[in-house]
């Protein structure tokens, strides 16, 4: 079978592959400790579920405009103005089936064959795939030497703060450096802010709020992580109108729209009580402290994650990410993601997701102690 070159260059997502392995081991009766999950282990808060149920019962089960439910687009624009300082109106907002599709559609809308896109190593796996599907080329860069990666072909810089997998949060100075480069070199910036609320002791800053970035920023966000709504598939982008219109056209011919009643749930998520978010972040903070101190006790140092729910751990002393991931899986049935999946310079690391209960974290730490302690 002759598949297209575009799709042949795309490998299976490493995290999805690991979930398959976890499921196989489980079906063999093994007690698998899964530290590879990229989703909150909480259920969607009941008031959000009720809003979607009511929408279904009320007959909101039909197509919606491709840009999304007008009330939801308005609510997102209002949230971006109030919380993020981004001067968006509903015309700048497109609701998509998950933030992932917002990223894909934005990259397809901005990147032509041969254009270069700057990614910071380590970066979430999907960005590279999206750039390749658009026919673009990834230039890997370090946050410490960004100008080294610029060429006349550079079109877009993708940033992600709080960061998956490294857990860092970009501060104002670094964001201003990126803003200045974007303006000086006439570049667009795609800012993936999906973990904005899962943040500890730091303040989230949106690059789209800076002067000069109104026409250069695509801000990505969604409901999956903040409201434990991964399966609902609702995300959004806010972009200059030509980009928003382009994404809408792409949606018209690909997905039509994000699921109608899920968008009513998302509307309730934004407008309803936010205590559920605080509760979840409190729990994540406790687990973060548990995992970092547990690793320290085993003699494995790791940077304190400032946001998201991942610890990115240097295991070069134990043979590197691939080897350690394999040993942990084989000997302790602990699944972690090898760092090499996140960029060419990250092979020394493993990513440990702490989106699982404290008991499972303790059991996983015991497995790690057995293999590496
Ligand atoms: C950095 C980052 N962006 C976007 C997404 C996708 O979110 P969604 O479920 O809204 O597609 C993820 C999910 O793992 C992520 O880690």
CATH topology of the largest domain: the name is Aspartate Aminotransferase, domain 2
| Biggest sheet character | 7 strands, mixed
Contiguous low-pLDDT stretches (5 residues minimum) are: none
| Strand line-up across the major sheet | 2-8-7-6-5-3-4
The structural class is alpha/beta
Secondary-structure arrangement, i.e. CATH architecture of the largest domain:
3-Layer(aba) Sandwich
Helix content percent band: 40-55%
For the secondary structure, the number of strands is: 12
The dominant shape is globular
Helical stretch count?
A: 12
* Overall average residue pLDDT: 95
What is the CATH superfamily classification of the largest domain?
Answer: Type I PLP-dependent aspartate aminotransferase-like (Major domain)
Strand content: 5-15%
CATH class identity of the largest domain: Alpha Beta
Descriptive account of the structure:
- The chain is an alpha/beta fold.
- Helices cover 41% and strands 14% of the residues.
- The chain has helices at residues 5-8, 14-27, 46-57, 70-84, 99-110, 125-133, 172-184, 241-252, 260-271, 275-298, 321-332, 358-372; strands at residues 33-34, 93-96, 116-120, 137-141, 154-160, 188-192, 217-222, 235-238, 310-314, 334-335, 337-338, 349-353.
- The protein has a 7-stranded mixed beta sheet, with helices on both faces. Strands 9-12-11 form a 3-stranded antiparallel beta sheet.
- The longest helix is centred in the C-terminal third of the chain and has 24 residues, at 275-298.
- The model has no long low-confidence stretch (mean pLDDT 95).
- The structure holds pyridoxal-5'-phosphate.
- Homodimer.
- GO terms for molecular function: pyridoxal phosphate binding; transaminase activity.
- Residues 30-365 form the Aminotransferase class I/classII large domain.
- One of its GO terms (biological process) is amino acid metabolic process.
């Amino acid at each position: 079978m002759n598949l297209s070159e575009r799709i042949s260059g795309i490998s299976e997502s490493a995290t999805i592959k690991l979930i398959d392995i976890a499921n196989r081991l489980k079906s063999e009766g093994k007690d698998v400790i899964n530290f590879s999950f990229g989703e909150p282990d909480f259920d969607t808060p009941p008031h959000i579920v009720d809003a979607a149920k009511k929408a279904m019962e009320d007959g909101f089960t039909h197509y919606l405009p491709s840009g999304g439910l007008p009330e939801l687009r308005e609510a997102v624009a209002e949230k971006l103005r109030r919380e993020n300082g981004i001067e968006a109106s509903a015309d700048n907002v497109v609701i998509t089936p998950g933030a992932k599709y917002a990223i894909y559609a934005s990259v397809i809308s901005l990147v032509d064959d041969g254009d270069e896109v700057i990614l910071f190593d380590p970066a979430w796996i999907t960005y590279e795939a999206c750039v390749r599907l658009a026919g673009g080329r990834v230039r890997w860069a370090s946050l410490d030497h960004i100008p080294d990666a610029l060429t006349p072909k550079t079109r877009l810089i993708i940033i992600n703060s709080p960061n998956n997998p490294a857990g860092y949060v970009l501060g104002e100075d670094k964001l201003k450096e990126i803003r200045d480069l974007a303006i000086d070199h006439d570049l667009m910036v795609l800012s993936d802010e999906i973990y904005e609320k899962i943040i500890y002791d730091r303040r989230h800053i949106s690059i789209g709020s800076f002067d000069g970035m109104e026409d250069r920023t695509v801000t990505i966000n969604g409901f999956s992580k903040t409201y434990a709504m991964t399966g609902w598939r609702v995300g959004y982008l806010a972009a200059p109108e030509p980009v928003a219109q382009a994404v809408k056209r792409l949606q018209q011919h690909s997905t039509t729209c994000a699921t109608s009643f899920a968008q009513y749930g998302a509307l309730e998520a934004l407008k309803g009580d936010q205590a559920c978010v605080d509760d979840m972040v409190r729990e994540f903070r406790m687990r973060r402290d548990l995992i970092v101190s547990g690793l320290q006790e085993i003699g494995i140092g790791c940077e304190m994650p400032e946001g998201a729910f991942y610890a990115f751990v240097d295991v070069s002393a134990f043979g590197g990410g691939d080897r350690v991931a394999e040993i942990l899986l084989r000997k302790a049935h602990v699944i972690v993601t090898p760092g090499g999946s996140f960029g060419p310079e990250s092979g020394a690391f493993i990513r440990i997701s702490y989106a699982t209960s404290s008991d499972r974290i303790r059991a996983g730490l015991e497995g790690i102690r057995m293999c590496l302690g």
